[in-house]
Write a structure and sequence with these properties.
By secondary structure, the protein is an alpha+beta fold. It has a domain of about 160 residues: NADH Oxidase, CATH 3.40.109.10. It is about 40% helix and about 15% strand. It has a 4-stranded antiparallel sheet, sandwiched between helices. Helix 2 packs across helix 6. The chain is globular, with a radius of gyration of 18 Å. It starts with 6 loop residues before the first helix and ends in a 28-residue tail after the last strand. The structure holds flavin mononucleotide (FMN).
Length: about 230
């Protein structure tokens, strides 16, 4: 029995984990996390989320399909622009800093080398036993994408409560045709992001650092308080 955790503790403990142990995660656990996360709010209670969870041979098949194409130098057109063109400051700097932390943790000096290594790690779900895909009807717009994000955060916090770790992965949206084919997605569904789920490999250097956050004064405006 795990000790009870407060929401604040779960938020504090959650971080993107990029190396996992071999310890499996049962279907029962994944079902329970998904069921509980479905309490996430959504505008008009649309619940505009569809999740595919893969384990075992199914997961291996999907990983091989993408890795094979990647190694042959193939590429697909992504579902959406992950970042806006000409990413402005301060977002550009934050993105660079997060990348630099990842490459430093792997002991890689050059950004291009780090990106290539990380890309491959992403497409094996960082060695996690479970790979999830968070999908949405392509007729939905930004409000429903936000709903899906709330589902994902609820899922990640519940995973922490269950002693598990996650890494959300929008990079999976860059292989829409291959992934849709493997999952048998109908045309109206698109992939927003993948997610790795499993037990954190606490000894791995890639999991050893924490990302920074801007101070409250940089993002919050409070008025009219006594
Ligand atoms: C929607 C979303 C997509 C993300 N996609 C990726 C990804 O494709 N690959 C990756 O390594 N990290 C990905 N991340 C993780 C972010 O880099 C990470 O959340 C951020 O740097 C803050 O670090 P933290 O999660 O450890 O607090 C994603 C995060 C979110 C919320």
């Amino acid at each position: 029995m795990l000790p009870t955790m407060t929401v604040s503790e779960a938020i504090e403990a959650r971080h993107s984990v990029r190396a996992f142990t071999d310890q499996p995660v049962s279907q029962l656990t994944v079902r329970s996390l998904l069921e509980k996360a479905s309490q996430a709010p959504s505008g008009g209670n649309l619940q505009p989320w569809v999740i595919h969870a893969l384990a075992g041979g199914q997961l291996e098949r999907l990983k091989s399909a993408v890795l094979g194409k990647l190694e042959r130098g193939e590429r697909e057109t992504g579902e959406y622009a992950i970042y806006p063109p000409g990413l402005p400051e301060p977002y550009r700097r934050r993105r660079r800093e997060a990348g630099a932390q990842r490459y430093a943790a792997l002991g890689i000096a050059r950004e291009e080398d780090g990106m290539a290594v990380l890309e491959r790690m992403n497409f094996v779900f960082f060695g996690a036993p479970i790979g999830l895909f968070f999908c949405i009807d392509r007729r939905m717009g930004p409000p429903q994408w936000a709903d899906l994000g709330m589902f994902m955060q609820s899922f990640m916090l519940l995973a922490v409560e269950a002693g598990l770790a996650t890494c959300p992965q929008e990079i999976w949206s860059t292989w829409p045709r291959t992934v849709a084919g493997e999952l048998g997605l109908p045309d109206e569904l698109m992939i927003f992001a993948g997610m790795s789920l499993g037990y954190e490999d606490k000894a791995s250097p890639i999991n050893s650092y924490r990302t920074m956050r801007a101070p409250l004064e940089n993002f919050a405006i409070l008025r009219g308080f006594d």
